[in-house]
């Protein structure tokens, strides 16, 4: 595995499976609207983006929207922790797990549609999302952690 910044986003690239995980990098410019691509290229090899890692966008206080591509199955713990300006997030149907505190402190987030593929929502996932007024949880969700909507 290797780490590489591609178009301003830090990835962990798995050379065996040709998959990529978005990972934390405090030097990234993570403000405004971010669109994560479905695939990234390194050394002329395509890597499919399959995961948003733990703490990936933590404290990106000027991030206003994020589009996550189809193929991503996991939103890691604290992935968007304290992204207080995040208003819009588009989750693809491929997402199966939303980690603990994934959107904790996203105080500008007003609504979110949880995709049908999600089976697990971690504890405190939306804690402190004080403007959250609408959330759709599909029937397939089998596990919801504690305090998921605390402070909403």
Written account of the structure:
Strands 1, 2, 3, 5, 6, 8, 10, 12 and 14 form a 9-stranded mixed sheet that branches. A 3-stranded parallel sheet has the order 4-7-9, with no helix packed on it. It is globular and about 45 Å long. The mean pLDDT is 94. It has 152 residues and is mostly beta strands. The protein has no helices and 14 strands.
Write a concise synopsis of the structure shown.
With 152 residues, this protein is mostly beta strands. The chain is built from no helices and 14 strands.
Q: How many strands appear in the DSSP assignment?
A: 14
What is the gyration radius calculated from CA atoms?
Answer: 15 Å
Distance between the termini: 39 Å
Shape: globular
* Percent range for β-strand residues: 25-35%
Helix % is under 10%
Integer average pLDDT: 94
SSE string, helices as H and strands as E:
EEEEEEEEEEEEEE
**How many strands, which pairing sense, and closed or not: the largest β-sheet?**
9 strands, mixed
**What structural category arises from helix and sheet content?**
mainly beta
**Poorly predicted regions:** none
Number of helices: 0
SSE map:
Blueprint: E1 2-6, E2 9-14, E3 19-22, E4 32-35, E5 39-42, E6 45-52, E7 63-67, E8 74-75, E9 88-90, E10 97-98, E11 111-113, E12 120-121, E13 134-136, E14 143-144
Parallel strand pairs: 3-6, 4-7, 6-8, 7-9, 8-10, 10-12, 11-13, 12-14
Antiparallel strand pairs: 1-2, 2-3, 5-6
């Amino acid at each position: 595995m290797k780490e590489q910044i591609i178009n301003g986003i830090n990835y962990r690239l798995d050379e065996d499976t040709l998959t990529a995980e978005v990972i934390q990098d405090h030097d990234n410019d993570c403000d405004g609207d971010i669109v994560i691509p479905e695939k990234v290229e390194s050394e002329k090899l395509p890597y499919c983006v399959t995961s948003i890692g733990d703490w990936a966008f933590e404290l990106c206080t000027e991030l206003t929207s994020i589009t996550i591509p189809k193929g991503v199955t996991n939103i890691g713990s604290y992935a968007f922790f304290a992204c207080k300006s995040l208003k819009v997030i588009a989750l693809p149907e491929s997402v199966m797990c939303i980690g603990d505190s994934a959107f904790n402190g996203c105080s500008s987030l007003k609504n979110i549609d949880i995709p049908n593929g999600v089976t697990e929502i971690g504890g405190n996932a939306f804690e402190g999302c004080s403007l959250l007024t609408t959330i759709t949880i599909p029937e397939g969700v089998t596990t919801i952690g504690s305090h998921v909507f605390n402070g909403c």
